[in-house]
Amino acid sequence: MRRIERIWTSILRASTVRSTRRSVGCASHPTPCYFSGVNTMTRLQMQPAAWLTSFGDRTVELVCGALQAEWGVFFLLDENIAGYGYRSRGAPVDLPLQYVAQDIELHDPLHPRRLASGKRRFTTIFDPSLFADPRSRNDQQHFWAFLQSFGARDAAEMTFWNGRRPIGGVSLIWRNKTSRCRDLALAASLQSYVEFNLLAACGGLPAHASTPASTSTDELTPREHQIADLVCRGYTNGEIAKLLGISLATVKTHLLHVFNKTDVNNRAALARYMSLRVTG
Questions:
Q1: Which residues contact 82 (CB under 8 A, 6 or more apart)?
Q2: Which DSSP string do the residues of 200-253 spell out, in sequence order?
Q3: What total of structural domains would you count in the chain?
Q4: Residue 131 belongs to domain with CATH number
Q5: Angle value at C-alpha 163, between 186 and 65, nearest 5 degrees
Q6: Residues in a beta bridge with 54
Q7: 209 within domain boundaries
Q8: What is the pTM of this model?
Q9: Which of 4, 21, 84, 205 is spaced 20 to 30 Å from 236 by Cα?
């Protein structure tokens, strides 16, 4: 236990890197320190979406810094193991877009749905169990080739649990030959630490109320769906314009239509609305 405490002390002292992503439509809310310093009163004074944004940013910074991963994405999982609340560090903006466009999820051995059955807490891309049979071996090779096209040299998935249900995770990618993802003891300590604080802070996971009664997202056009999804993943209007090859004005116009159709007035509300439509 003392060894783990020393690890956290050194990590917390080193984890002062500023977040590389902007808040999803919310003003920045400073917190005194990483997890334990965000007391109950501070959390009550902050909007849930803003607090989770800060939590996600600090988590991905801490995990990437400790394991020396160049790229990382923190996310939460709803009851259907669908991701939301994405917070990214370092990853190229077109990686998730290509992930969706190429249907990489169908081949992703590190996807939380595949890891859920074994209640895995930290899994590397070269874990032998990921390619135990011909089909899983083909999927692992397909997924690894996709990551290599972005310069990846190693990858892993950290998953957080509430009992038997996965509630979030951090996807990690290393671009240098030397990585610390093989330090399984450190990875396990990080996983336990973040999981404990996530459960303590959110009571298990962000509350999901009943499905909103506003207009169905089925009324969104394919382009509006695409833009809404990117907004929920934390991309700015400028980044979305670059990804989709359209003008900034066009992005803003589509986003206004999305806001009107979903009866929300900001990006954080849209992210919550979309997550509730999935779980409703």
A1: 275, 278, 279
A2: HHHTTS----SPP-S--GGGS-HHHHHHHHHHHTT--HHHHHHHHT--HHHHHH
A3: 2
A4: 3.30.450.80
A5: 25
A6: none
A7: no
A8: 0.65
A9: 205
